[in-house]
Amino acid sequence: MPSEREPRRVVVDPAGPVLVDGPVEIALPDGTVARSDRFVVAICTCRRSKRFPFCDTSHRERVRDS
């Protein structure tokens, strides 16, 4: 885990979530705070996630079986 002086690593994927080295606390617009102790946390940017602000892969295109 990075120390207080080391920057957090953030990976931005235009086709997916923002990946942040955890643990993280996310301050939401309604004043609540979402927390995750995971090693890497996927933050939803498409707002389709049922687990918002965390990504649940809802951004992926659905492929139907023929």
UniProtKB/TrEMBL annotation:
Pfam families given for it?
zf-CDGSH
Q: Name one GO molecular function term.
A: 2 iron, 2 sulfur cluster binding
The name of this protein is Iron-binding zinc finger CDGSH type domain-containing protein
Q: Name one GO cellular component term.
A: cytoplasm
Q: Which residues form the Iron-binding zinc finger CDGSH type domain?
A: 21-65
**InterPro entries tied to this protein:** FeS-contain_CDGSH-typ (IPR018967), MitoNEET_CISD (IPR042216)
Which keywords does this Swiss-Prot/TrEMBL entry list? Answer: 2Fe-2S, Iron, Iron-sulfur, Metal-binding
Q: Does the keyword Iron-sulfur apply?
A: yes
Q: Does the record bear Metal-binding in its keywords?
A: yes
Q: Recite the lineage of the species.
A: Bacteria, Bacillati, Actinomycetota, Actinomycetes, Pseudonocardiales
